[in-house]
Every structure is written in structure tokens, then in C-alpha cells.
Amino acid sequence: MKTGHRVLILGGGFGGLHATRALRRAPMDVTLIDRRNFHLFQPLLYQVATGSLSPGEIAAPLRGVLSRQKNTRVLLGEAVDIDPGARRVTLRDGGSFEYDSLIVATGSESHYFGHEEWREWAPSLKSVEEATAIRHRILYAFEAAERMTDAEERRAWLRFVIVGGGATGVELAGALSEIARHTLRNDFRVIRPEEAQILILDGAPRVLPGFPEDLSKKAERSLIRLGVRVRSGVQVMAIDAEGVTFRTRDGSERLAAKTVLWAGGVGASELGRKLAERTAAETDRAGRIKVNPDLTIPGYPDIRVVGDLALAFRPDGRPLPGVAQVAMQQGAYAAKAIARRLTGGKEPPPFRYSDQGDIAVIGRAAAVANLFGVHLWGYVAWLVWLFVHLMYLVSFRSRVLVFIQWGFQYFSFSRGARLITGGSPPKSGN
Amino acid sequence: MKTGHRVLILGGGFGGLHATRALRRAPMDVTLIDRRNFHLFQPLLYQVATGSLSPGEIAAPLRGVLSRQKNTRVLLGEAVDIDPGARRVTLRDGGSFEYDSLIVATGSESHYFGHEEWREWAPSLKSVEEATAIRHRILYAFEAAERMTDAEERRAWLRFVIVGGGATGVELAGALSEIARHTLRNDFRVIRPEEAQILILDGAPRVLPGFPEDLSKKAERSLIRLGVRVRSGVQVMAIDAEGVTFRTRDGSERLAAKTVLWAGGVGASELGRKLAERTAAETDRAGRIKVNPDLTIPGYPDIRVVGDLALAFRPDGRPLPGVAQVAMQQGAYAAKAIARRLTGGKEPPPFRYSDQGDIAVIGRAAAVANLFGVHLWGYVAWLVWLFVHLMYLVSFRSRVLVFIQWGFQYFSFSRGARLITGGSPPKSGN
């Protein structure tokens, strides 16, 4: 049965890709549109930024992933506007697509809370380009320090400040520590890379605020063991080329640092904001769209929002976090709800998140995990982390390549993808 | 014995790296300066451009490669001038280094024979950035073709013109054919990627002019079997956004093509030109510096030039080709000559190239090789190519990763690194 029902899916991340796959046997015309031609395994992007993996190893071309799904076409394009009345999506290049059902899965972007000017000095970690730019900065900082004759300048090049103590911030800090203490250990003749200072600044009272308190404590202790300093409960006031200023309980402090990385916060994608405007939907401070229990936008039963862009809730009223698990489940749910609606079946039950827990890696053989309420840490949690991340990589090829890269790294302490590429180096004092 | 003799090596390619390694037990202060922090295995760069490999898989960080070589330091910097009288090298950032012996191995750059404006429309394949930009263009062309409604526009997006029929041009053409006929076969819904037209334009009468004539013929036949058209003996007159114009024996022709790739020619690096100027050395049309039989510049026994930048000759007077083998042997020779000169040994015998032959791959299970005068082609030559290239990769990790990528590709016809990244897409008609 071919119904000709046109499902348009915007975004090929976890939400969009899982929605598309869930429609593989549906008698519909499915179109997936993404700005990029690949699905990116975001949770490992920090490993690209820290030289462990190459971008190609955590990306899978969307066309390749979906080539056998004959009811689906993939298009490279950036959706910039949605007309919910005419049921039409407009692309940046002027093209437009009509839909019968729409799934919006365009995710989130890094958000500087009104300080866009910080972006230049504190890059964030959302895209492949940003990850390679951060890799560039980190590696270049050691190179620059090696050439500095002034001790203070050298210290500023060897200080790395990470803004944000969530999973990304913790992962970056742990990886940076391993780079400084192991990977680059014998590589320099003037500086000692292990003297690098790595700091996490966070406004919350503890790192990994999404985790139970005992695991946050364990994570912080692991970080300290790795030489990472955690400054909790501080508020960043300024970031510039020479460092960062932040407010503490007792006043304010200034740290000279040539490398500041932003793991601070995310907000709705640009298209998400447009969609909220067009549908007069309610949003939270970050711009996430408040959706009905069936993930539709109030008043628009043909538009569903999934993943980071959706503000959905647990039965107890707490909002769902912006993680891959939620996006995947929402994507699959949205697809099934559309199929069911079309075949005239009864209304689907509300979306219910099946929480399998959280996991964050801190460094070599150190992680924390909260799985079905069981708290794990250290080596065991790290093994679980490894297993989970390898299994969720989309392509078998990626799984093998990443496994090998990790194996080499574990035994040799070396990192395979230590390339400084692209653009000119960051501004140097020399 | 520590002599304090300062050897400065400019460039960490095949020549510079082999020179540095050959000095690992020499009682000298060795400094290797490169613009990049990694050694790049150039012969496989076309596989990055065609989505088979990630840059990190064919690059090895110079510091890592040389970390145990305690007499050597590595610096990230770009040499911009040489003062042979003061024995001093100046870097772009203003720093300077004095030397007692200098090895210049800064290689070649792509050369547009006075038509710099072609660079924008016909990128060449010398750096990681250029390789990913070419990958971007190739993959984007198929995406754009999928969206075109005008048949002529679509044809222009599906036509790929490669200027130059040397090893790089032939390798690119073969890889492009495999992409169109196999990798992307089922990925599109509107276009048929196998209808892509791939052309090689070359001024020489045959492809692979460095090979014996029978192997050139075999290579051309393999290309034709892969659907590649070869236009020999033509001269490119213009390249712009819409295509390429070239002169044939009978007049001139215009081809509409959105993707033109430059595999046309190389010339001396900028520093090489500066060096020739400063030493009043003789150069050829491409700017290569004519060196003495011991690779020194006439009048400057403390400066040696190795690799693509050196114009050296075989005993029969033919110039040595700009290939990795020559650079590696020259690098090692230059290092040994310096060490011998220092210990007061007798003058080294002139550099003698030990020619192990040439090899070029055309596609899946097709290559041509001329090894010690034995002509090989087809599957056998291809196996030799695989083996040689895997063995010459600098790090063991790269060898394993590349081997696995190739294994996947051979059996699945798929390519792992099909990412369109960086910058905005090329100008599109839509």
C-alpha cells in the first residue's frame, strides 16, 4: 500500500535518523533534510577535539546509512523557515518542500547567554569544524609555550580553562589531562607538558549536576587525581584573548589563559526559534519548544518536535535532558505516531522516556554511571562506557576503527589524530 | 661526543624526516622546523580527497615520531628567509635560528603556470585542507545534481574534469569512477551517479609520461574500462566556475563542468625561490634549485637541498623525478654527508639514486608498476602497490587503520570518510 503521505524530517542527528529508520516499512514518501551529508556521533566529538579520533571515524554518510530504505530520499539543505499553515518548509537556497507530517529534529546550538563575543575566544564543541578548531588550539598552545621565553607568557599558554562542568566539560578536562601528562610527555625539549594547568569553571555547586550527588563527588575526586582543578559556584563575567574573569563568592578573579573552551550551555537551533515564532509555541529560556505529551506542538497535530529542541517532561514533571537516548526514543515514537494516525488507529499513548541511565567518562579507566539506579564508578563504569559507545556507533566500520584507535591509545598513551589543520594559528604573543 | 654542531632542517616531509632520522645518533644539535605539526603521507592524499581515508590516518605527529630522538627538537614555524652569509633562518613570526649546516626540504607547491586565478575553480591536492576541500566539492556535486531540474545543469554537476595525466590525475580519476559507479550507486533517488562523466585533460601525448610506453597504454586502457575519458595532447586555456576551455589540434573546445581538479604541475616552494635568490643559484622553469652532485648549492657547502626542491640528475643526465623515494634517499644522504664532513672524513661520494621503480594505481585491482625494469599491471601491480604503500606509512597505527579502511572498502565498495565539511558549499545554480 502506497499512500503518498509525505513525511518531512528536518535534521539527521539521533532524533531525525531514528525517526527515519522507524519509517522504513511505512507506505509513505519520506524525505530527510540535513545541512550536512552525514550523521555525527556527537558523544565522541570531544575525542576528535582532543586528538584521539578523526572526524570520519565518528561520522556516517546519511545516504549510505539509508541507501536501502527505498521510500526515503536524503537531501543536503538547510531549512530556514516553516509555514505551518501551508505545510511548507523553505530551504536557504530558496527551494521549498510541502509535507503532510513534519518531524523537526534540528537540535541545539551552543549558547553564550547573550555574550556572542565570547565565541571567538572560547569555542564550543558542536560541529566537526569546531572540534578540529579546538584540537588546533590545544595542540598549538603547547607549541607556542615551547617557544616562549617569558615565564608568565608560557604559563598562560599552558593554562586551559573549561567553562561548564557537565558531561562535555568533564570529558574535555579528563582528555586534556591525559594529553598533558602522557601523550605529550616526551615530545618537548623546553616545557614540561605535565605542568599544564587545567581548570573547570562552573556555576553549579558540583560537576555533573545531572548525576546523583555521590557520583558527582566521585567524578570530582577523579578529576583532582588527574590534576584538574574544579571551581564550582563561580560565574564567568568576561572572556577575551588573554584569559577569563569570573565572580566568586568573595569577589572576582582573573586568570590569564590562552585557551578557553566553552562547554557552558546550549540553546535552540535557529530554525527552532523560527518554528516557535510561527506556531506561537511556548518555549523555555533556552528556546526549547514545549510539546504535547505526543510530541506535537499545541494546535499543530501534524508537527512533531523531537530531541534537544523539544521541551518534554517526565511523569513527575521534571524536564527530559538533552541527551541522545531521549532523542532516539522520541524520534522512533514520532514516526510510529504518524504511521498510526495515518492508518486510522487509535491515538498513541503519550511518549514515555525509558531512562536507561547516564554515563560520563572522566579519563583513562575512570567514569561514573547511573544505570537503572545502580551507581557505578572507576574501571567498571569505564568499561560500560566503552561498550555502550562502541555499540551505539552507527556503522560497523566506525566501531572497528574506533575500537582500534582506543586500543592503541590505551596501550601506547599516544593519540592518532594530532593534526593542527585549518586557518591561521590563534593569535600569539610572539 | 657532543660537538654542538647545529643542524637545521626545514620541512618535515619525506626528505626532511629521513634526514632527521639519519642523524639520530649524531653528536649534534638537530632542529626540525615545519609549518605543520605532522608528517603527511602525500601519496595517499588523493584517498582523503575521495573519501576513503581520514587525514589523521595518513598523518603522523612529528613530535611523536621523533620523541625518543633526544638530540633533536621539533618546532612549529614557517621559515620565510635564509641569510646564507650569517647562516641564519628567519621565521614568519620574527624568530630566527642560526645553523652550522642547513638542509632545505620544503618541497613543492602546486603551480598554475601563471594562471593563479584558476586556483579558485580548480583546487589542487597538496595539503590536508585542499584534500578535504576537494572531497567537499566532489560529494557536493552529486548532491547538487540530485536537486537540479534542468538536464543541462545536472550534466554539468555530474562532469568531473581532471587537468593532468600524471600519477595524481590518474589516481583521482580512478577513485572518482569508483565513487560514481559503486560507492554512491544506490544512494540517490533522482540521478544515477554512474552517469557521471570523468575526463582527464593532459598536454602530454599519453598518461603517466614517467612510465614506459607499454604501461601508459595499459593504464589508459584500464581508465577507459572504468569509464574515464582521456584527452591527451590538449592545452588548457581557461578555467572558470562553469567549466574549462582547451585547445585541441583542430581548434578549441569548451566543456561545461562544475568540478575541475588540478593535477597539473608543481613548482618550488616560496622559501625555495627565496633561497635561490639569496644564493644566486641556478633554477629550472619550475624553480627547482640546481644542486651539486653532493646536493650542496654551488658556493655554499653548508646548505644542502633535498626532495622536490632539488634539481639533481641521474648519471645519464636526466633529472630525478619529484617522488618520495628520491626525497627519502636524498635526505638520508645529506645527513650522512654532514656527519662525515664534521668528523673530518673524506668527501662523500656523489649522491646516487637507487631507483626501485615507479608504481601508480588506477582503481580497484588495477595498477601499473615498473619495478627494477620489470613491467607489472592489473591485479599483481595493485597488490604490490597496496603492500608498498602500507609498509611506507610512518606509524604502525596508520598501517593498521589504513589496512582496515581498505579492507572494508574492497569488500563493501563503500568509503568511510564521506564528510562534506568546512566553509560554504561551492556556488550552486539553484
Q: Could you tell me the CATH topology label of the domain at 116-264 in chain A.
A: FAD/NAD(P)-binding domain
Would you identify the regions of chain A where 5 or more consecutive residues have pLDDT less than 50? Answer: 424-430
Helical content of chain A stands at: 25-40%
Counted beta strands of chain A: 25
Instruction: Give the CATH architecture of the domain at 116-264 in chain A.
Output: 3-Layer(bba) Sandwich
Rg calc of chain A? 22 Å
Biggest sheet of chain A, strands in spatial order? 5-2-1-9-21-20
Largest contact between chains: A-B, 54 and 54 residues
Which class of the domain at 116-264 in chain A in CATH terms? Alpha Beta
Estimate the strand proportion of chain A.
Answer: 25-35%
Which of globular, elongated, flat, extended, rod-shaped describes the shape of chain A?
Answer: globular
Distance linking N and C termini of chain A: 69 Å
Structural commentary:
Two copies of one chain form a homodimer. Chain A has 430 residues and is of the alpha/beta class. Among the domains of chain A are: 5-35 and 77-110 and 266-342, FAD/NAD(P)-binding domain (3-Layer(bba) Sandwich), CATH 3.50.50; 116-264, FAD/NAD(P)-binding domain. Helix content of chain A is 32%, strand content 26%. Chain A has eleven helices and 25 strands. In chain A, strands 5-2-1-9-21-20 form a six-stranded mixed sheet, with helices on one face. A four-stranded parallel sheet of chain A has the order 13-12-11-17. Chain A has a three-stranded antiparallel sheet with strand order 6-7-8. The longest helix of chain A has 20 residues, at 128-147. The N and C termini of chain A lie far apart (69 Å). The interface between A and B is large, with 54 and 54 residues.
